[in-house]
Amino acid sequence: MTPPETNPPPGPAVAPRFLPGLLLLFLGSGCAALIYEIVWLQLLQLVIGSSAVSLGLLLGTFMGGLCLGSLALARLIPQRWHPLRVYAWLESGMAILGVTVLFAVPAAGRIYAPHAGHGLTGILLRGVVASVCLLPPTFLMGATLPAISRWVETTPQGMSWLGLFYGGNTAGAVLGCLLAGFYLLRVYDMAAATAVAAGINTAVALAAFGLAALTPHRPQAAEPKAGPPAAVAGSRTVCLAIALSGLCALGAEVIWTRLLSLMLGATVYTFSIILAVFLAGLGLGSMAGSLLVRSRARPDIALGWCQVMLAAAMSWAAWMLTSCLPYWPVNPGLASSPWYTFQLDLVRCLWALLPATLLWGASFPLALAAVAARGLDPGRLVGKVYAANTVGAILGALATSLLLIAWQGTQDTQRLLIGLSAASGLILLFSSFWRQPRSPASGQSAGSPASLSGDGRDVSIDEEMPGRTALPAISLALAAGLAGFFVASVPPVPWQLIAHGRYLATYGNDRALLYVGEGMNASVAVTKMNDGGALNFHISGKIEASTDPLDMRLQRMLGHLPALLMARPRSVLVVGCGAGVTAGSFLLYPEVTNVTICEIEPLIPDKIAPFFQKENYDVIHNPRVKIFLDDARHFVLTSHEKFDIITSDPIHPWVKGAATLYTRDYFQLCKEHLNPGGIVTQWVPLYESDLPAVKSEMATFFDVFPNGTLWNNEDHGAGYDTIVLGTVEPLKIDLDQLQGRLQSLTAVAQSLQDVQMGTIFGLLATYGGQASDLRPWLAGAQINSDRNLRLQYLAGLASDLTQATQISDSLLPYRKFSDNIFTGSEARKEALRMILQLKSKK
User: Fold this and answer.
1) Which residue in 132, 163, 524, 625 is deepest, having the highest Cβ count within 10 Å?
2) Which pTM value belongs to this model?
3) Helix 119-149 and helix 378-399, axial crossing angle in degrees, nearest 10
4) CATH for 312
5) HSE-up of residue 835 (Cα within 13 Å, Cβ side)
6) What residue spans of 150-228 are helical by DSSP H?
7) Which domain, by its residues, includes 639?
């Protein structure tokens, strides 16, 4: 830090009446930035995947661009340039690049897909794609705050305004998050959302050009080449503290988002609410910190105490999310509208997250004030602090999501983050209390924060604390002791939350835990009913597979239905390992030589599938089976292999990211990866859904496979779930040949008999109609595409509904025997016709 000069050089001519207007510009800029972020990350996930590694690369690239932009602005743009014009050009560039990315990502995907692979090379290539698409626009985003900072002076009042600008930008980000998540992408698509963001950028740029024409600019003197040693040391300590603050903030956000998505349901709306609350806390905290800067002579000490207090706030959030909020007597299934549930979700997020986010938000303006002094280039000053915070955020997000949770679990990772936050605060306080500056006579920077008393007098530490009183030492010891208590008090995540999620409060003690684990991509559990009944595999707070007869029938159908209808299948792709039952079904066919399983969470084949070894025929250890740890969308996009059968049992489409496995583009990819005569099957749930969502799933599938058919898995006549089956050529089922094939495969017949489907009529009685007959029922259905991902918004509004039977009943008129599909002896045809007639009458 540098001493204040007796006669400071002329600073920028700031017209105070324009500062509130500039605050509005930052609000608009933040709104556009968050819309872009949501669209870009969603768009790029379609190309490089949505695994933890891919998401880490995307997030790291996004924040890396912000960091580079904040550092580069002061080095590339001379101070003599009008800050508002620079800001306007940055906003204009973002509008252009924002639209460009919308078209560049699909082009990059076409180049990327043929050359992509797995392992380190594949990861590096994903990083290149993310960098090419995201670095240019995020570079401009990161440069906006340093650019506009040159319009204010490096005084407490100037730093206060910068904190308010940062808070206004964050408030705009909250608006952009809610606007994109609850309206633009739900009602329109990515193109419309991008157009809105680009329009906001353009309006902000025009307003900034207008303000620049009304206000003169007189640049400050250049920053001195070197400051006093004490000032330099203090600046480094502050940058370290704000970097650790960013690390803890993003690390905690990763953990809390995972826990909240279990508790609230992992819909796109939940993620929008969590992000909005987090950003709102940052914005409000930044504004509060900006006001605090004006009245505090020692912002470095305030920043230190802020980090210590964060240890308490993070401990509060950890306790709320694991030991309190999950047990609130909330049953989302009772809500008559999802919007009532969203209100409860918002309250719970605010209750847990707001204290910590307020303190993180206040840290940024305090850090700016702690390193500010007259004569510094505001752009370089802000860029340095912002870059330090962003670098820490990158490290926190990547380390937590890719390493710490899977290695140590959320409990110990939160303990580590709390400890780091407290340590950064204690280091800063120790440095501020005990840093011994030289007196003004010896050349000390008397105006540095280390030598200012509460009333602004220039004093030394010895004068301020005669004999170095014990008060600071006692305060630091007390803070350290409390930090240790907060670290030790972090509770573990209850396995019931991982197993039951948002319905935890409605479950009793009817099952025992066999396994629980927290992986890179998801938290999983295995339970067994206390009455000796079904084994259950839980993921994302819901049961994904079980040994219950109803679930077993569905899992076996997904395997046996296509394998029996195709004469001699050899290669199979199974999307999603789950309990391994579907994949294991194919091992009963001697002609099947290659079963490829694609699974995004490593814990599932390694830890979960062995619990179901009897039901899945020990599929994991079979030499015919290959397992790829990648998300299915990326695997199919980049694979050069073709398959006879592709069968998919993804998680519910309301789970964020799952809707990419229900798009027209994905089904087209599957179609292109079929061998001649190949078959695709896809699970479509009727429970935890509603009619518009189910129609969208089926209409999208049949849009790609117009010869498709529907097959039902019912719960004693009531609706439960279904399977859509697609072929390129019209489907033909010879009943006599099918009977002979089943008789020759005794292991297959036994496998079907185990789920009460031991004959061809038991299997074919599940037939629910063909696509051509279902067209009237599907009229007006939304087609889910990569560009709109409309299904995740439709399904997200219906995730707590129980309308399976109503949906199933509406399909009954289309369940009829079809002469153009079923062939064979008249006796068998007539028997099947009568069965289907009885089924259609229920």
Assistant:
1) 163
2) 0.90
3) 150
4) 1.20.1250.20
5) 17
6) 156-179, 185-187, 190-214
7) 550-841
